[in-house]
Amino acid sequence: MSFRFSIGKKIGTGFGVLILFIIIVFGATFLAVNNGITTFQENDKTTNELIQVLTPSKEKVAHLRLSLNESKQLAIQWVNDQSRNDVPDKLRLKNIITHNIPEIISDIETLAPEWKNEEDRQILNRVIGRIDTLFTIYEEIMALLPDIASYDDLFSSFQARFYVAQDGDVPVLAGKIEQNLLNLHNSLEKQEEDALALVKSSSVESKEKFQALKFYWFLGGALIICAILIAIFTTNSIVKPLQSLRHILISLSKGIFPKTKIKVRNDEIGDMSLAMIGLVDGLHKTTDFAKEVGQSNFSYPYQPLSDEDVLGHALLKMRDELAETERTLERKVEERTEEVVQQRDEIERQRLKLEDLYKDVTDSIRYAKRLQYSILPPQEVIRKVCPESFVLFKPKDIVSGDFYWFYETEGKSLVAAVDCTGHGVPGAFMSLVGANGLNAAVKEHQKTKPGLILNELNKFVSDSLNKGSDDNSVRDGMDLSFCTIDYQKMELEFSGANNPLYIIRNNEFLIVKADKFAIGSFEPGTHNYTTTLVPIQKGDLIYLFTDGYADQFGGDKGKKYLYKHFRDTLLSVHHKPMKDQHDFLKDQIETWQGSYEQVDDILVIGIRI
To answer: If you write DSSP's letter for every residue of 562-585 in order, what string do you get?
Structure first.
């Protein structure tokens, strides 16, 4: 058989030569250029990392180490030096805790996502967690020793010194943080040195690589000439016939059958033309068959092109399956239609039933609110008992587990802020028990001493909830702060169950502590509540409260408001009129809460002497 220079051989020879030149020129050029560009990019990236990340990070970490060491020394000095809380060293410690260190940590957290070393970020996370713990200890020390007089309290002084002892929590925790920061600083310093070395070496390397490109310019010119010759040869012998077939295929892809007759050549393109003619005829038959089947004419005749015609046999199988599916669907549609009608009617009946139930429950709770509010003293009574005062009351639900109580007897003003177990309906039931217990202790048993009143209330709650019976024991109770104010003698008597009393005098806080056991948490007679006598002065600010304000989540990080923040807020507004204090505290907690849910009932009572 004579040699035949077929289309395949033509294409193979022409493009083989072209590809060979392309591979040589493109490969060499690509390697040189890519290496040079990569080197420049890495150099630029390393420089930016050095200037914007590594050096600032190292400096911030060093600054953080210094600030933490200073805070440790100031905390130890706070405990060891008996002084007022407005001396420069104590103010410096507060400023470091509230401003300096948080700002440094914020700057480091901004840079940390750009660090390449995951271990460095883990170290930073550990440092931040331990700093939060250290700050909590600092705040505990400040709360234990808030003023000069507190240093004479042996318990507070001993506990504070225990924190700052050589093996105490402050030195141990500060040492761990110092070691973490030292490791982080050394890691960042090593990365900075490596980056400087890489910048110096990569600049020289990239310059040498780009100088090698001159040789490949000549090869590029030869490649262009070769490509032109091959393109002319291919266009005349191959491309034009293929363009004709291409137009036909594009039309078929759009569902348009060719209107002109296809020419047949005596080569591979001719073989393709014959195959195209057969394809067009087969598509005509398939189209007609599909139209008939689509109109449910499943008896329309159709014959596959051959025994190996996969599409033809698949169409026949599809026709049979569609016929069976249509019969099945008709039966199921009839069955499902009847089911849907029945389900729709049942759903409508259940919806109407749920609406009635919801309305009944809501009406009951709103009626319970009216009952609960009936035990709360009206504004006239509050103004009579404590002329200059406010009550901030924000229930979590329709009804509340917190309630306030005012009463005047024997020339004395009795005030209580009570937090019953739970909130909502369960808390509201407990509040009714608490209010009745206070009324019984004061009005029936004629008690005016806060400690005696709380003892009576504990007995009343235990009897009301059958806490003396093991079978009926209910684990419910209440926390509260209770005070009796004698405006004539300028004396205040206080007793509390878990909740303390705040007094602001001359811009300083006095915290009167409560007993650490709740009402209803013990058998009557096994414990007695303590009554604390506190001399008061004109202008003193008295605050009673529950834990709802300090426990509210919110802010930028979704954390609790906390008692320290609460005290700072009271200190900032105590000089204002009582109504303005009420409005400010209400706006402040709502702003802090933001989009977060209210977690508990909120109650704050303020009284100006």
So the answer is: -HHHHHHHHHHHTTS-HHHHHHHH
CA distance 273 to 245: 7
pTM assigned to the model: 0.46
160 and 255 share one domain? no
Pure H helices in 264-309: 268-294
369 and 384 together in one domain: no
Residue 537, domain extent: 377-608
Question: What is the sign of the dihedral through the CA atoms of 310, 311, 312 and 316?
Answer: positive
Sign for the pseudo-dihedral over CA of 467, 471, 472, 476: positive
Residue 141's Cβ-count burial label (10 Å; 0-12, 13-18, 19+) is buried
In this prediction, residue 471 has a pLDDT band, given cuts at 50, 70 and 90, of very low
3-class state of residue 127 by DSSP: helix
Q: Which residue has the tokens 């000439």?
A: 225
135 and 187 in a common domain: yes
- Domain termination site, one of 354, 375, 396: 375
Q: Is residue 382 part of a domain?
A: yes
Residue 497 included in any domain:
yes
DSSP state of 556: T
User: Is residue 12 a part of any domain in this protein?
Assistant: yes
Integer Cα distance of 252 and 72 in angstroms: 82
Domain with 460 in it: what CATH number?
3.60.40.10
- Is residue 471 located within the same domain as residue 456? yes
Q: Which two tokens stand for residue 410?
A: 């024997």
Cα distance between residue 80 and residue 394, in whole Å: 42
d(CA 490, CA 276): 111
Residues 187 and 280 in one domain: no
The residue among 313, 343, 375 that closes a domain is 375
In a domain, 557, yes or no: yes
Which percentage of the chain shows pLDDT scores above 70? Answer: 75
Coil, helix or strand at residue 491: strand
Let me know: does 601 contact 400? Beta carbons within 8 Å: yes
Give the alpha-carbon dihedral of 3, 7, 12, 14, to 10 degrees. Answer: 100
Same domain, yes or no: 498 and 383: yes
The token pair that represents 367 in the structure block: 């009626």
260 and 170 within one domain: no
| CA 345 centroid distance within chain | 43
Q: What is the pLDDT of residues 118-148, one digit of tens each?
A: 888 898 899 888 888 888 988 898 888 888 8
Q: Which residue has the tokens 């049942």?
A: 346
Q: For residue 244, which phi and psi values (nearest 5 degrees)?
A: -60, -45
**Chain length of the chain:** 609
Structure tokens given for 141: 């020390």
